[in-house]
Design goal:
- The complex is a heterodimer.
- Helices cover about 40% and strands about 15% of the residues of chain A.
- Chain A contains 23 helices and 18 strands.
- A six-stranded parallel β-sheet of chain A has the order 2-1-3-4-6-5, with helices on both faces. Chain A has a six-stranded parallel β-sheet with strand order 9-8-7-10-11-12, with helices on both faces. In chain A, strands 14-13-15-16-18-17 form a six-stranded parallel β-sheet, sandwiched between helices.
- Chain A is globular.
- Chain B is an alpha+beta fold.
- Chain B has helices at about 5-10, 10-15, 40-50, 80-90, 120-130, 150-160, and strands at about 25-35, 55-60, 65-75, 95-100, 105-115, 135-140, 145-150, 165-170, 175-180.
- In chain B, strands 5, 6, 7, 8 and 9 form a five-stranded antiparallel β-sheet that branches. Chain B has a four-stranded antiparallel β-sheet with strand order 2-3-1-4, with helices on one face.
- The two termini of chain B are about 35 Å apart.
- The chains are: A alpha/beta, B alpha+beta.
- At the A-B interface, strand 5 and helix 9 of A face helix 2, helix 3, helix 4 and strand 4 of B.
- Bound molecules: thiamine diphosphate (TPP).
Chain lengths: ~550, ~180
Amino acid sequence: MRAVDAIMECLKAEGVEHVFGIPGGANLPTYDALYDAGIRHIQCRHEQGAGHAAEGYAKASGKVGVALATSGPGATNLITAIADAMMDSVPTVFITGQVRTELIGTDGFQEADITGITMPVVKHSILIQDPRDIPTAIHEAFHIARTGRPGPVLVDVPQDLSRADIPYEPVDRVHLPGYQPTTEGNAKQIRLAAKALANARRPVIYAGGGVINAEAARELVEFATSDRFPVTCTLMGLGGFPAPHEHWLGMLGMHGTRSANYAMDEADLICAVGARFDDRITGKLSEFAPRAKFIHIDIDPAEISKNIPAHIPIVGDAKNILTKLTREYRALEADSSRLDEWWSRIRNWQDKHPLRYDDSEDSEIKPQYMVQAMYEATGGDAIITSDVGQHQMWAAQWYHFREPRRWINSGGLGTMGFGLPSALGAKAAMPDRDVVCLAGDGSLIMTCQELATCVTENIPVKVFIMNNGYLGMVRQWQELFWDKRYSSVEMGASPDWVKLADAFGALGMRVTHKGELLDAMKTALAEDGPVVVDVHVSREENCYPMIPAGQAARDMVG
Amino acid sequence: MGEPGTKEVLNLEDLEAAGGIHTGRTHILSILVENKPGVLARVAGLFSRRGFNIATLAVGPTDDTTISRITLTVDGATHPIDQVTKQLHKLVNVIKIRDLEPEESVARELALFKVSADPETRGQIMQFTDIFRGKVVDVSKRSVTVEITGTDDKIEAFERMIRPFGLIEMVRTGEVAVSRGRSAT
Ligand SMILES: Cc1ncc(C[n+]2csc(CCOP(=O)(O)OP(=O)(O)O)c2C)c(N)n1
């Protein structure tokens, strides 16, 4: 069998139904095999787009996302998506073509040492050197991508090897002596954690994206309600705990709620679940949660005590550990009334500092209102992807995510241009769900060519542009910390988005008055094809509250 | 331990176990890796990416040809050593890591010294070499090359003795080490 046909067999055996990519000389054999493999190939317009689409696919479905690219520039175009997938632990497999083996290392046409270039941003990578290794390599890649702490795996296949004839036999097991993720969680540590929780008077559960990766949302609710534990989530963890829940404090961190950040600040015990103490959460490390002891549950041992020393480290799968922890905790029959004081303090913050904005202007569209309108138009039930900037933070604050895998954004790398391609990937995975990309006008232009993909491949995503004519988040920082010296943040000649949508064959709409917004959104959602809605919002609105970078929760402004 | 309340949970051992503390001494990491292309680059890259400095590095095959051993020394004063080992563990091709305690292991390094020599000084250099249980491996009219194995202290002591003769070149392999006693490293 041709090695490339074996690749297709392996992909099918892994349950792959969709792949995203662009062909070229070095992966021509792969594309030949794809031609009648029975796997849907979604031809993107830029490899970065294909990579983000694979991420969106993975985040929406929980399955492994796959992107293909040719050698050299095709492969280097994937790098942003690979780095993004690494930072956000997204299970993805990237299969690149490589120049023929006799050309490797000679600076051949379209050659790039992609395994070398991507080494710091992959979970693992494999350069194929013997075509007979291809089936095993593909299965290893999927295994590594989806188990333990998920992440991107790159398989680089030289063109000549991909055409070789190999004996193909299905691979049913992979053997990786150095790769044995811990899933169970140490029983003694779990017991210790339960006892610490039973003694805590001001506990907080701080949940991250790991909860979603581990499919542990239900277990998190069980755990949180085994007593009256308050819960806050990171940007990546949103939807991991239902926002309407009475234990919910809102998101924490730089643009988190005051109640969440103040609770962290005053907590005596913080139980971190699948969260990595990112600097956007901790602010100034030495002043982060100064009174607290830390229970840290994570599948990745290297996260434990990386930034904040954990008093009770528990390495393993969050679903598994939360189940056991809940059981241990219930058995202790702790006196719940000890938390009365804590809750009255929290309720006090919540009453005094709800998220708010000035909505007195009649016709002007406030960005926060735009997100509220999205929530209403979609019934709070859509998959929302976003780009990076103010709009992302407003979406996180105002679209009250009730379930996991509904909020797809670039949290770790903060990649502008992530929104549209990840939306098309999410829609491919979840065709029955509304998928809305909340785009920044600055971000969207970075990957707007993927509108062509949406139109050609009939992927009806709805793009709502929060158009403020600025690189808004940067403008906000310049306003607050750089004396309003607005250096290179005005967007100048942005395209006429309605015409741009039209040029790509999508429907374009424009909304400038508040009163028209909700209807326009509903109309867009009801359309069969892809739609771009250009929403003009008030230009210089700031995203509050905010902890200035490197400062403490107590220094929140706005 | 009695009823472990939150207070009792906070103690130094816990913190140390969790790796939040700099040990302050040099660590010898003995790392078994799959003998595959790119593995050394991954290991070294991991250190440079995080700004960790490798003091010495030695690599060679083991008795099993599919497995190599990397011996690597790092300074635990500047980096929390457990972060290093945990990050190393994440590399798929890394099979096993031992952090060798100095008292419980034997470490050796090989060094070659090329020293200026003439008929008058040659005898003296050879005498020093004898004292240090070294070996002369090359002699020319105006130089002697000596091989010394031992701990880094010994090699440094030899260097101090020999330098005044005129040190032309010197090269060290970096330490290799095994644990003491019967058990495999
Ligand atoms: C690829 C990339 N380049 C630069 C940045 C830095 N950056 C962060 S937010 C931002 C502005 C985003 O503007 P826009 O997409 O219009 O969103 P807004 O903040 O206005 O909602 C920029 C430039 C980034 N995050 N990603």
